[in-house]
Amino acid sequence: MLTLSSAELNTWIAALLWPLSRILGLIAASPLLGNSAVPTSTKISLGVLLAMIIAPTVPALPAAEPLSMAGLLILTQELLVGLAMGFSIRVVFAAVEMAGEISSLTMGLGFATFFDPLTKGRSSAISQFLALLATMMFLAVNAHLVLLAALAESFVSLPISAGPVSGAGFKALADWGGKIFSSGVQISLPIVAALLITNVALGILTRAAPQLNLFGIGFPITLGIGMLVIAMSLPYLATPLQNLLLEGIETSRKLPRSFADRTRPPVPVTPVALPRPAPPPR
């Protein structure tokens, strides 16, 4: 007859519950797996499956009952670590969406907005288009698989412990959030520059011929120039988008090391290598 003690049962529950909390945190915050279009049951099933695969490789767990105060603190801490890792990838998509917002406002398409189910807010048409383009790039370079590999590696660089995490991880996450503005402006810079030249040309034309209706011809011209520049720059967006995704995954892999105790010896991390996109046609 098989008999189980309460200590063994608590150990088995903790061995699955604590890794599951970090995994579910990453799934909830990641831009693709955490999309509201994905059913909640699918997210939980994927998290349980990943936890069953990763749990045997997790280092020794702290001796704490899952339902005790110490166990609940560990559960909350692991959830925060997973949310931080998923949010670091979400920053990449936020930068792409900001580039679309800047481009839309410059082109005069600020009124063309759609409901974004991910952010539960409004976003412009160009922003939605660039977000879909970034999602396809995310899948094309297998970044979702690399992200899951970084998640499994995080249990080695930041083992499950009853001790508090370091505040350096939150500072690193806040510093990484500034990438939204810098990368958003850099991606939208060709469109903004082209439309700036167009507006200067329209101003000179209106000054030379005051009888022209600037409001009548300005909007179609800026809209057409913006669409033309977007179409011309699409073949060249693969490299910056891939570099941005690579940097986001590297940040997600380094976050657990930032959360780890400073006195703990550093764990070597192998750099990520994503497949390079094909060069644009000449």
TrEMBL record:
<comment type="function">
    <text>Role in flagellar biosynthesis.</text>
</comment>
<keyword id="KW-0472">Membrane</keyword>
<feature type="transmembrane region" description="Helical">
    <location>
        <begin position="187"/>
        <end position="205"/>
    </location>
</feature>
<feature type="transmembrane region" description="Helical">
    <location>
        <begin position="129"/>
        <end position="152"/>
    </location>
</feature>
<comment type="similarity">
    <text>Belongs to the FliR/MopE/SpaR family.</text>
</comment>
<keyword id="KW-0975">Bacterial flagellum</keyword>
<dbReference type="InterPro" id="IPR002010">
    <property type="entry name" value="T3SS_IM_R"/>
</dbReference>
<feature type="transmembrane region" description="Helical">
    <location>
        <begin position="12"/>
        <end position="34"/>
    </location>
</feature>
<keyword id="KW-0282">Flagellum</keyword>
<dbReference type="InterPro" id="IPR006303">
    <property type="entry name" value="FliR"/>
</dbReference>
<feature type="region of interest" description="Disordered">
    <location>
        <begin position="257"/>
        <end position="282"/>
    </location>
</feature>
<feature type="transmembrane region" description="Helical">
    <location>
        <begin position="46"/>
        <end position="64"/>
    </location>
</feature>
<keyword id="KW-1003">Cell membrane</keyword>
<dbReference type="Pfam" id="PF01311">
    <property type="entry name" value="Bac_export_1"/>
</dbReference>
<keyword id="KW-0812">Transmembrane</keyword>
<feature type="transmembrane region" description="Helical">
    <location>
        <begin position="70"/>
        <end position="93"/>
    </location>
</feature>
<keyword id="KW-0966">Cell projection</keyword>
<protein>
    <recommendedName>
        <fullName>Flagellar biosynthetic protein FliR</fullName>
    </recommendedName>
</protein>
<feature type="compositionally biased region" description="Pro residues">
    <location>
        <begin position="265"/>
        <end position="282"/>
    </location>
</feature>
<feature type="transmembrane region" description="Helical">
    <location>
        <begin position="212"/>
        <end position="238"/>
    </location>
</feature>
<keyword id="KW-0969">Cilium</keyword>
<keyword id="KW-1133">Transmembrane helix</keyword>
